[in-house]
């Protein structure tokens, strides 16, 4: 029996996202649909989000318009598809500080947040650099870094220094240093609570964008392909991908790329009236399906 119910919830999308950002190499051309989403977990007396999404106003809206984000809906509407309100959220695990993953800090008034120390430290450093280094800070809202520091002073932002086992029952955090960002992390959910679980799920953050990062595009020649957008190295991304696969015993579909448009086709899902998707990965005891 699963300890946590798990859903992936779309809240917006980029309909013309360059494939070259998702897959590193000159052969990867064209565009794809890129959902913006976060994960919702319920279990063990907790309501947990993996990432916050962003708030569609001020600099968040500026970045969203810059990147071509469409069909934005806030967490009050999105979480309601699973019978949850933003005030119900007790914990938020932040994979990295880009605006679409950490831009909603103010939207969850009762939550405690978790982020890697290296992520905060390096973003603070990068924001001191001159405009010639704008590539390093292009997808972040500086106000989010300040908010994270304020929340830390209020004891609502827990700063994790490296890997952490059982940060919540059955949930482990893993530092992926110098990959997509300086202090990205991925999240393992051992959904029967056991170490080396065959019922583990991994949420990759943006260290992979698509299942194709784990398999390549040629079914006859499977191999790892790093993402194209990184402040770290492609070597570190490949090693991180291999480590994530170890967490699931090599089962590719249990490594979840939150931006993968095919999640809705891989797992039970439902299209909402807002033309978003609820994707259901697991149900804990007593939980009713939100896609049937």
Q: Care to describe what's here?
A:
It is a single chain. The chain is α/β, with parallel strands linked by helices and 292 residues long. The chain has a single domain, classed as 4-Layer Sandwich (Metallo-beta-lactamase, Chain A), CATH 3.60.15. Helices cover 23% and strands 28% of the residues. It has nine helices and 14 strands. It has helices at residues 19-22, 58-67, 75-80, 99-102, 117-126, 142-153, 212-215, 234-247, 263-266, and strands at residues 5-18, 31-43, 46-50, 69-70, 91-93, 112-116, 157-160, 164-168, 171-177, 183-190, 200-203, 255-256, 269-271, 277-282. The strands form two sheets. Strands 1, 2, 3, 4, 5, 6, 7, 13 and 14 form a nine-stranded mixed beta sheet that branches. Strand 2 (31-43) and strand 3 form a beta hairpin. It starts with a strand and ends in a 10-residue tail after the last strand.
Q: Architecture in CATH?
A: 4-Layer Sandwich
State the fourth-level CATH superfamily: Ribonuclease Z/Hydroxyacylglutathione hydrolase-like
Q: CATH first level: which class?
A: Alpha Beta
How many alpha or pi helices? 9
User: Care to count the β-strands?
Assistant: 14
Helix content: 10-25%
Question: What is the H/E string?
Answer: EHEEHEHEHEHHEEEEEHHEHEE
Largest sheet, strands/sense/barrel: 9 strands, mixed
Specify the structural class: alpha/beta
Radius of gyration: 18 Å
How many discrete domains? 1
The termini sit apart by 20 Å
Low-confidence stretches: none
CATH topology: Metallo-beta-lactamase, Chain A
């Amino acid at each position: 029996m699963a300890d946590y119910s798990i859903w992936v919830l779309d809240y917006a999308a980029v309909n013309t996202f360059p494939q070259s950002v998702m897959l590193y190499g000159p052969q990867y051309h064209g565009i794809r649909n890129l959902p913006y989403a976060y994960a919702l977990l319920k279990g063990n007396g907790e309501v947990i989000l993996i990432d916050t999404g962003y708030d569609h106003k001020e600099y968040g809206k500026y970045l969203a318009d810059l990147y071509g984000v469409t069909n934005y809906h806030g967490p009050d509407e999105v979480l309601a598809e699973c019978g949850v309100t933003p005030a119900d959220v007790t914990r938020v695990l932040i994979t990295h500080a880009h605006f679409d993953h950490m831009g909603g800090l103010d939207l969850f008034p009762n939550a405690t947040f978790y982020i890697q120390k290296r992520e905060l430290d390096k973003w603070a450093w990068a924001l001191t650099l001159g405009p010639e280094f704008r590539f390093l800070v292009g997808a972040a809202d500086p106000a989010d870094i300040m908010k994270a520091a304020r929340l830390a002073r209020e004891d609502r932002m827990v700063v994790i220094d490296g890997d952490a086992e059982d940060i919540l029952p059955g949930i482990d955090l893993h530092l992926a240093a110098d990959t997509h960002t300086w202090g990205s992390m991925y999240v393992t959910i051992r959904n029967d609570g056991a170490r080396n679980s065959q019922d583990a799920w991994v949420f990759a953050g943006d260290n992979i964008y698509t299942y194709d990062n784990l398999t390549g595009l040629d079914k006859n020649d499977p191999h790892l392909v790093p993402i194209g957008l990184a402040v770290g190295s492609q070597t570190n991304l490949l090693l991180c991908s291999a480590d994530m696969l170890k967490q699931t015993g090599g089962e590719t579909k249990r490594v979840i790329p939150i931006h993968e448009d095919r999640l809705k086709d891989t797992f039970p899902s439902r299209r909402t009236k807002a033309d978003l998707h609820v994707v259901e990965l697991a149900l804990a005891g007593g939980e009713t399906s939100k896609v049937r």
